[in-house]
Design goal:
It is a single chain. This protein is of the alpha/beta class and 848 residues long. It is built from 21 helices and 41 strands. A hairpin with a 2-residue loop joins strand 40 and strand 41. Helix 14 packs antiparallel against helix 15.
Length: 848
């Protein structure tokens, strides 16, 4: 996180510009990053483009059209249309995803919730790197599937999401808005319809100076020409033929779109949506007018796509930009520099509205690439502790012969005179090294939308200027200053750790890692949920891991009201970086059942740190560091259990095995190779994780037969939900038809169809109260048909629908028991929902 609020970035740069920077550079760091661009600054500044890329950037500079695509989730966007607009027509193109996909499931790993949202944010950014778009978000939280847009808008803060869309419109200033979905109710996801409803409302309000006036301190009203729905419409509705080949890559926009969608691996796996139709053929995209001025034929009918639209001075820039494109020479990009500098001087004279400011930044990048000017600031370690020294190695290298002088590198918070210009020599890296100290009160790195506890439907964001951004601004922003002709060019960047050799300038997403501000120690509770019988005591351990050598301090636990902890605090000392110490406390539960949170914190050098450390590392996205609060759920609960030895066959993204351990089970993780009857005889119960039969490749007819034989010989087999499509093996020996039926209302009353069944009575007595406090949903992928041997145990329904009875089915099989459940235990147990623990304990204990 930046050391100053983002709304103060511009003023910080203005203070710097008063030393004659702004007049010469025409670039503000905040304008560059906070505009919603999809590239890290380090990524954009540490590489140069080839001639065909430069020419395309020049054409983009020449073209003034802008389009904003709006939908609800990662993967909702029409990537082929985005690629066509951005790479084919050179329009400024952006996708606004109202949510970050936090409510979905993860088919490539164990992350769910906020962690999954961070992954899907980066997947969208990886997609935009391919199709050429910008990326924006609102503060809306993906709370799971919604059947009705009105229910969605009752959980989201409607006015906040509406304000966020208006903010993005005013920031990006699109000529045309396009929704993916219709604003009328239909059978689609409620988030989908809500995204269109709010987009139409925001379209009408963005140009109104009385709407959300607090935004007008930094933004100005903006009214797009029209808003369209992608799809639908009659024969007289606007439509376009999209297709052809990307002029730089030489592949079809369809193939680019396929590669872009292939980045959504947490949803579709490592092979999902990769590829495209191939070739350069076309297809028609139709649109339906939702608001604004009608279009007769084309999406951009009646919109001036040239520089003339900016008024006085625009016609001159339009003529110069046309010359720039026409006179560009592939073999000699630096020949364009004099004309680029002439355009830049004209551009700097224009009033700096957001579009002009972005075009200034674009022109600076074109100049940089025509010069073949590469900059990079590296640090030995991407992770820096507050108060530490930063050993910065600044490098500038020029591949052209055009005269360039390097003034130095500046941080927006630090004052000081601009250095004298030192000429760069072609092909010779120029290096400057310096040491700076990171302020001791620098905030720790954490995605800005995760820094505070969210509400049921919204993330809480402190600084309005962050709203819409895909990721955090740099922790330590930098700007390189160069003299080119009679002008000064600024190149913004940030420190990175280079994680691969510089030879060959490998600039993939894993080649560098952004600077992150970390705690000197990370704290990890041994479990995410601690179950304690009411009135009883239980030990809880906290692992302290040192990020640096010689760390010492005091560790404390904060417990909920009614609980107590002993001892009050414990001192610790860790001698070497990486050293780990397990510290044990005892928590005492109140006499009544209750749920709260236990938080660990360590005071080091007078500052309190209360964060965990999570590294998320997948090949298709940058390495992610998350530092959430070090908390565990404290649940005072009577939860009895008869099963002791449980085998667990993991699926995708669930923490049920850890919950079973907390209940008191001895849990053994199984693989497909373990599913032979001789290896299963020692278990009371086998549990399969969510979607195990969808995602595992080590299941077969033989493994299914072994699970059936285990139940037949007296074991209990609990199958958690699977999707109906793509099953790798048979679930159960009795027939069962899965569906997409679900109960989305987590408050929906649950009817016990057979109250005397052991599942509701042994060893815990289950009542309606055990369904209180459930999160996100009741369940999903219920059975729709089942063999007569099964007994349905529960019925429930969403408002206005018929009751569903396929959420929990139990059948005797030989001497054992079969269970299928679509109840979302994988969400409830990590959330510490008491009744979910008690019911699941009964299910695994059946027959014991």
């Amino acid at each position: 996180m930046p050391q100053i609020p983002p709304e103060e970035f511009e003023s910080a740069w203005t203070r710097l510009s008063r030393r004659d920077l702004l007049a010469k550079t025409g670039l503000l760091f905040a304008g560059s990053f906070l505009s919603g661009g999809f590239l890290w600054l380090s990524e954009a500044s540490s590489k140069t483009l080839g001639a065909s890329d430069i020419l395309q950037e020049m054409k983009r500079f020449q073209t003034m059209g802008s389009v904003l695509y709006v939908a609800a989730h990662p993967d909702d966007e029409n990537t082929e249309l985005i690629a066509y607009f951005a790479r084919g027509l050179n329009y400024r193109t952006a996708y606004l995803s109202l949510t970050r996909g936090d409510g979905g499931q993860n088919v490539i790993g164990g992350e769910i919730g906020a962690d999954l949202g961070a992954i899907r944010t980066q997947e969208l950014l990886s997609a935009r790197r391919l199709d050429g778009g910008h990326q924006f978000f609102t503060r809306a939280l993906d709370f799971g599937f919604s059947k009705d847009f009105r229910k969605t808008l009752s959980i989201w803060d409607r006015q906040q999401v509406l304000a966020d869309i208006v903010r993005v419109i005013r920031k990006f200033r699109p000529d045309v808005m396009i929704t993916r979905f219709a604003p009328e109710p239909s059978g689609t996801h409620g988030h989908h319809t809500a995204s269109a409803v709010l987009a139409v409302e925001a379209f009408k309000l963005a140009g109104d100076p009385t709407a959300f006036p607090e935004q007008l301190k930094e933004l100005t009203p903006w009214q797009p020409k029209r808003i369209l729905q992608n799809g639908g419409g009659g024969p007289d509705s606007p439509s376009i033929e999209i297709g052809g080949l990307d002029p730089v890559l030489g592949v079809s926009f369809s193939e680019i779109a396929g590669r872009s969608r292939g980045m959504h691996q947490s949803q579709f796996g490592t092979s999902g949506f990769i590829g495209g139709r191939g070739g350069g053929g076309t297809r028609r995209e139709a649109f339906r007018l939702l608001g604004g001025e009608p279009a007769k034929k084309e999406v951009f009918d009646g919109i001036d796509l040239t520089w003339v639209r900016v008024g006085q001075g625009g016609e001159v820039i339009a003529a110069l930009a046309a010359r720039l494109v026409n006179e560009f020479t592939d073999s000699n990009p630096e020949a364009s520099i004099p004309l680029l500098l002439e355009i830049r001087s004209k551009l700097n004279a224009l009033q700096a509205d957001p579009l002009v400011r972005e075009k200034r930044n674009s022109l600076n990048r074109i100049i940089q690439h025509c010069l073949g000017l590469v900059v990079e600031t590296t640090i030995p370690d991407a992770e820096v502790v507050p108060g530490e020294k930063l050993h910065l190695r600044h490098t500038a290298q020029l591949s052209s012969s055009y005269p360039v002088g390097w003034h130095g590198v500046h941080n927006p918070e630090l004052s000081g005179a601009i250095g004298n210009s030192v000429p760069l020599r072609r092909g010779e890296p120029s290096i400057r090294e310096e040491t700076r100290t990171l302020d001791s009160d620098t905030p720790l790195s954490q995605p800005y939308w995760l820094r505070k506890e969210p509400t049921a439907g919204m993330f809480v964001v402190d600084y309005p200027a962050y709203i819409g951004l895909p990721e955090n601004p740099p922790a330590f922003p930098l700007v390189y200053l160069f003299s080119v002709g009679d002008q000064t060019i600024s190149i913004p960047t940030e420190p990175v750790q280079r994680t691969s050799p510089t030879e060959g300038r490998d600039l993939g997403i894993k080649a560098t890692r952004r600077m992150e501000v970390i705690a000197p120690v990370s704290l990890q509770p041994e479990t995410g949920v601690r179950l304690v019988a009411p009135g009883a005591s239980k030990a809880i351990s906290i692992a302290i891991t040192a990020a640096r050598a010689g760390v010492k301090g005091v560790l404390r636990l904060t417990v909920p009201a009614g609980w107590s902890v002993s001892p009050d605090k414990k001192a610790f000392e860790l001698k070497a970086a990486g050293d780990k110490l397990i510290v044990e406390f005892t928590v005492h539960a109140p006499a009544n059942p209750v749920v709260g949170a236990i938080t660990a914190s360590a005071v080091v050098n007078g500052r309190s740190y209360d964060v965990e450390r999570k590294i998320i590392d997948y090949p298709h996205i940058p390495t992610l560091l998350l530092q959430p609060n070090a908390t565990a759920k404290a649940v005072a609960l009577d939860c009895n259990l008869s099963a002791k030895n449980v085998g667990y066959l993991a699926g995708s993204g669930d923490g049920v095995a850890a919950a079973l351990t907390e209940m008191g089970c001895a849990v053994t993780q199984l693989s497909g190779a373990d599913l032979v009857i001789d290896k299963l005889k020692g278990f009371d119960t086998i549990v399969t994780g969510v979607r195990a039969f969808n995602v595992r490749t080590d299941l077969s007819e033989k493994t299914s037969d072994a699970l059936a034989a285990f139940a037949e010989q007296g074991g209990t087999l609990v199958i958690q939900y699977n999707r109906p499509d793509g099953l790798k093996a048979k679930l159960l020996p009795y027939s069962l038809r899965l569906s997409t039926l679900r109960i989305t209302d987590d408050h929906s009353p649950m009817t016990l169809l057979t109250p005397d069944h052991p599942a509701f009575n042994k060893p815990n007595k289950i009542t309606q109260a055990d369904f209180d406090g459930w999160v996100q949903e009741r369940g999903t992928y219920f059975a729709s048909e089942w063999d007569s041997h099964f007994t349905p145990l529960l019925a429930s329904e969403d408002a206005g629908e018929e009751p569903l009875k396929g959420s929990l089915l139990v059948a005797p099989y030989g001497r054992g028991t079969l269970v299928y459940t679509g109840l979302t235990f994988f969400r409830q147990l990590p959330a510490g929902v008491p009744g979910a623990f008690r019911l699941f304990a009964n299910l695994v204990s059946l027959g014991r």
